[in-house]
């Protein structure tokens, strides 16, 4: 019987992956050969259970040797190889054998979908890999790492031709953060490549992979240098050249060198004028340079491009949700909330799971000030019927301090039977912020000392009684928390809370470190949300001003976001005596405009523009001020203000 397929694998400590991998090819391949390079877990046993023939191999830091040990045992006419952290897509099962029936093809490139990121937020990046080829004794892998066989086949068989197996897809999970961290792949790969480069300094494919490992280790400037050198010795017709270009751009961008990235993009677009990734990352670089309109043009071009060729390995969303997101961000920068909402909605339609766009939509709707309107708008646009959708919205409302809405959606989630310990904790937090203290305490009292949420529950219980001014209960809980073993900084904040209740006229100022200040600012944010400004004053009056010096801006933003205009104005004026800040002048201008003090507002808008001339909202708000001011001033001043407004419109940022 012809066209038998042998799956050949090399593995080590893959008990968490190998079953999924082998299940994906069950009934599709004719034999499974697994070469184990030193597993200390149940990998070999699971492989045998799944029908594999398992062989041991003494690891020698050479992937090709291990690969060749697997294929030399294969009896099929075709070799198909996977790694344990991969699987054959379900829709590919019925078509694999069809490609092996083609008589004039020696091997195939196959589409692979790489899953990238953290387990809570995963993204995809497609690529092409050479994974299916005829089993001939002269075809053997070469290279200690990123081992190659396609080039070897062409060397051995000048007439060999390759195909693209468009209907076969491999899914790869090895780039997930958890997989990389677990196996320490970055450092392992780097050491092997460095050793190989000592004997093969002119191997530029190896140098390309070396640059990739440097990039993953966040050595961006070093990676860029390696990538550029590789590109100068690589033909643009090479299958990985588009990815190499993108890596150069990403390395320069990540190294804080957007101008160099843009130079590379300009050169790359001459060779690949339809490469969406270059337009998208060009947009990001221009945003970093505050060249907003040029960035907008590149993002718009990216979304207009057709499906990308497989060899581009185009990153997911560069022609869709990612580009739309930044188009929305640019619209917001120019204070065009309507256009921003349109782009954020387009982003979500392209990828309903892209939470950053949803967060932006909710922020524009201002759920703290307009809870019912926000809810009404979201119900018109999104399907909120599932428990998961409700939980996502509850978490966003919680993060944005819209505790009434967060509580509403959390309670709906709990009603579906999904009342986890963390969801109940968040409900208690929201209840406190809604002054429903008794209900919150009932939940908080339900956490036992063996729960990972117990310290947070006790802290919130303490906060609950402290806000109500119950001194005895506050002291009792402080003692309970001390018995748990607290850090010095947490201990100091608890002392601060106790002393603030005593209201002595003469107090010793307490010095807090960064951890203590972070906790204090979190408490102040909650107190301002509760309109407990006196309690905030009591706390701040007992803190050494020196340790607050680097956090003045944080305090200003807390008062500003909570709507305490008079206090934020006083803090801003004090801040500007020692700091030159365009944003501080802008916030001060906004406060004066809201109170009708147009002349003072104009002065601070001018200062803001002088300090940061590339910030569009400063100009736009000044123009808006002039239009409002003009309606209520003496006729002889109209011409002067109009001239000032025209000047402001003429100095638009790029």
From TrEMBL:
<dbReference type="InterPro" id="IPR029044">
    <property type="entry name" value="Nucleotide-diphossugar_trans"/>
</dbReference>
<dbReference type="Pfam" id="PF00535">
    <property type="entry name" value="Glycos_transf_2"/>
</dbReference>
<feature type="repeat" description="TPR">
    <location>
        <begin position="582"/>
        <end position="615"/>
    </location>
</feature>
<dbReference type="InterPro" id="IPR001173">
    <property type="entry name" value="Glyco_trans_2-like"/>
</dbReference>
<dbReference type="GO" id="GO:0016740">
    <property type="term" value="F:transferase activity"/>
</dbReference>
<protein>
    <submittedName>
        <fullName>Glycosyltransferase involved in cell wall bisynthesis</fullName>
    </submittedName>
</protein>
<keyword id="KW-0808">Transferase</keyword>
<dbReference type="Pfam" id="PF13432">
    <property type="entry name" value="TPR_16"/>
</dbReference>
<keyword id="KW-0802">TPR repeat</keyword>
<keyword id="KW-0677">Repeat</keyword>
<feature type="domain" description="Glycosyltransferase 2-like">
    <location>
        <begin position="6"/>
        <end position="119"/>
    </location>
</feature>
<dbReference type="Pfam" id="PF07719">
    <property type="entry name" value="TPR_2"/>
</dbReference>
<dbReference type="Pfam" id="PF14559">
    <property type="entry name" value="TPR_19"/>
</dbReference>
<dbReference type="InterPro" id="IPR011990">
    <property type="entry name" value="TPR-like_helical_dom_sf"/>
</dbReference>
<dbReference type="InterPro" id="IPR019734">
    <property type="entry name" value="TPR_rpt"/>
</dbReference>
<dbReference type="InterPro" id="IPR013105">
    <property type="entry name" value="TPR_2"/>
</dbReference>
């Amino acid at each position: 019987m012809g066209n038998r397929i042998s799956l050949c694998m090399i593995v080590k400590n893959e008990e968490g992956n190998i079953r999924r991998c082998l299940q994906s090819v069950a009934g599709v391949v004719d034999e499974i050969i697994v070469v184990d390079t030193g597993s200390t877990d149940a990998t070999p046993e699971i492989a045998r259970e799944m029908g594999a023939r398992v062989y041991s191999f003494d690891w020698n830091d050479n992937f090709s040797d291990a690969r060749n040990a697997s294929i030399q045992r294969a009896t099929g006419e075709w070799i198909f190889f996977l790694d344990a952290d991969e699987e054959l897509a379900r829709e590919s099962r019925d078509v694999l054998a069809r490609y092996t029936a083609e008589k004039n093809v020696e091997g195939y490139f196959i589409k692979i979908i790489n899953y990238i990121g953290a387990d809570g937020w995963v993204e995809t990046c497609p690529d092409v890999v050479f994974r299916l080829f005829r089993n001939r004794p002269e075809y053997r892998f070469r290279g200690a790492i990123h081992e190659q066989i396609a080039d070897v086949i062409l060397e051995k068989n000048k007439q060999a031709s390759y195909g693209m197996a468009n209907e076969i897809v491999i899914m790869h999970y090895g780039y997930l953060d958890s997989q990389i961290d677990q196996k320490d792949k970055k450092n392992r790969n780097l050491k092997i490549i460095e050793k190989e480069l000592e004997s093969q300094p002119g191997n530029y494919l190896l140098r390309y992979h070396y640059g990739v490992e440097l990039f993953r280790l966040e050595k961006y400037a070093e990676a860029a240098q390696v990538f550029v050198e590789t590109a100068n010795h690589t033909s643009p017709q090479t299958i990985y050249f588009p990815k190499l270009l993108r890596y150069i751009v990403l390395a320069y961008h990540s190294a804080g060198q957007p101008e160099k990235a843009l130079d590379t993009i300009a050169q790359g677009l001459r060779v690949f004028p339809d490469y969406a990734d270059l337009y998208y990352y060009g947009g990001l670089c221009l945003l970093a340079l505050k060249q907003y309109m040029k960035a907008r043009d590149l993002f718009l071009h990216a979304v207009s491009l057709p499906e990308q060729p497989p060899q581009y390995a185009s990153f997911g969303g560069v022609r869709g949700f990612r580009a739309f997101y930044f188009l929305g961000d640019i619209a917001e920068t120019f204070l065009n909330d309507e256009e921003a909402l349109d782009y954020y909605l387009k982003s979500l339609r392209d990828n309903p799971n892209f939470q950053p766009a949803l967060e932006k939509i909710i922020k524009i709707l201002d759920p703290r000030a307009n809870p019912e309107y926000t809810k009404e708008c979201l119900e018109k646009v999104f399907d909120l019927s599932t428990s998961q959708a409700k939980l996502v919205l509850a978490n966003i409302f919680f993060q944005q301090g819209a505790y009434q809405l967060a509580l509403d959606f959390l309670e709906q989630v709990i009603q579906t039977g999904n009342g986890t310990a963390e969801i109940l904790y968040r409900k208690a937090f929201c209840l406190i912020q809604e002054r429903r203290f008794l209900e919150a305490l009932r939940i908080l009292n339900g956490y036992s000392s063996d729960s990972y949420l117990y310290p947070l529950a006790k802290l919130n219980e303490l906060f609950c009684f402290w806000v109500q001014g119950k001194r005895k209960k506050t002291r009792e809980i402080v003692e309970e928390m001390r018995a748990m073993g607290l850090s010095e900084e947490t201990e100091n904040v608890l002392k601060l809370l106790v002393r603030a209740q005593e209201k002595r006229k003469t107090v010793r100022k307490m010095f807090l470190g960064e951890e203590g200040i972070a906790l204090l600012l979190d408490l102040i944010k909650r107190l301002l949300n509760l309109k407990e400004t006196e309690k905030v004053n009591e706390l701040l009056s007992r803190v050494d001003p020196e340790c607050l010096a680097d956090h003045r801006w944080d305090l200003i933003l807390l008062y500003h976001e909570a709507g305490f205009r008079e206090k934020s104005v006083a803090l801003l004026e004090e801040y500007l005596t020692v700091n030159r800040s365009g944003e501080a002048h802008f916030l001060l201008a906004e406060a004066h405009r809201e109170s009708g003090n147009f002349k003072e507002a104009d002065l601070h808008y001018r200062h803001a523009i002088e300090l940061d001339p590339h910030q569009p909202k400063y100009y736009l708000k000044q123009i808006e001020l002039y239009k409002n001011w003009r309606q209520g001033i003496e006729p002889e001043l109209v011409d002067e203000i109009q001239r000032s407004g025209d000047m402001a419109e003429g100095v638009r940022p790029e």
